[in-house]
Design a protein that fits this description.
Layout: H1 24-27, H2 32-47, H3 53-62, H4 66-69, H5 88-139, E1 143-150, E2 153-163, E3 170-174, E4 181-182, E5 190-192, E6 199-202, E7 220-224, H6 226-230, E8 236-241, E9 247-252
Antiparallel strand pairs: 1-2, 1-6, 2-3, 2-4, 5-7, 7-8, 8-9
Length: about 250
């Protein structure tokens, strides 16, 4: 065999004619997969009056099924794959279910928000009292938390006892790093402190300097929630200040 001769593998598709029937001699030139593809394409061609012969030849040469290639043509008779989605009725039903669920859980959501608001207000006051006691012990000064009414609301602020520059009497001055805060009116604050100045004074030893031993239970602050009371839950947060400077916190119903 001469070196100048070159052999080219024949294209099994190029010589085929697209006819209703494939010739027996062409079976040997087609792979099993390509033969199956041709048979499916032929069945589709027999059912459709608008078959595109060029497209059929292309499908045979690339091994792509005719139905997949022609799914976008509306006149081929091949059923398109429908895009899956939600109908208007399904959306209405889902929205209705969501609405029922929200309506059923709405009271419990309000309950949780009310409990958190009450706890937040009480814990904030408790933290301020503990910080004032720490300031008195750390700075070796008398430190007090004074409660007063302003604009029909109970407010409180931390003050320290300082001597004047001229060396005169001691006066109460606002403590640094503390700001004036407000007790929410909706919680009906009850301030059970000495009526003279409505304050709690911590000494440098951490004791309550103005504690009244005759009526120890008067040193307490109560916050109430009417909403929680109507729901038969613990609606009170009680802060009690003891003579030794310790501060108690408890929940109650009433």
């Amino acid at each position: 065999m001469g070196s100048g001769q070159q052999f080219c593998r024949p294209d099994p598709i190029s010589h085929l004619k697209i006819t209703p029937e494939i010739t027996p001699g062409d079976h040997c030139l087609l792979s099993p997969r390509l033969l199956i593809c041709y048979q499916e394409a032929r069945r589709t061609a027999l059912k459709s009056k608008h078959i595109n012969l060029n497209l059929l030849a292309f499908c045979l040469s690339t091994g792509i099924k005719l139905g997949q290639k022609m799914s976008g043509q509306g006149k081929t008779g091949i059923k398109r794959m429908k895009n899956k989605g939600f109908t208007f009725i399904e959306i209405i039903v889902v929205l209705g279910i969501i609405g029922i669920a929200v309506a059923a859980s709405y009271p419990s959501i309000l309950n949780v928000l009310e409990v958190r608001a009450l706890e937040s207000s009480a814990r904030e006051l408790l933290t301020t009292l503990e910080a004032a006691r720490y300031t008195a012990v750390n700075d070796k000064v008398n430190c007090r938390v004074r409660f007063f009414q302003e604009d029909s609301q109970w407010r409180y602020m931390v003050e320290v006892e300082q001597a004047s520059i001229t060396g005169g009497a001691y006066t109460w001055q606002p403590a640094r790093k503390f700001i004036k805060q407000t007790l929410p009116p909706k919680f009906n604050p009850q301030i059970g402190l000495p009526s003279t100045d409505q304050s709690i004074v911590f000494s440098p030893l951490g004791l309550v300097a103005n504690y009244n031993f005759t009526t120890p239970q008067s040193f307490q602050i109560i916050l109430k929630s009417d909403k929680l009371r109507n729901l038969s839950q613990d609606n009170q947060r009680i802060i009690v200040i003891y003579a030794g400077g310790s501060i108690g916190y408890k929940k109650a119903r009433g």
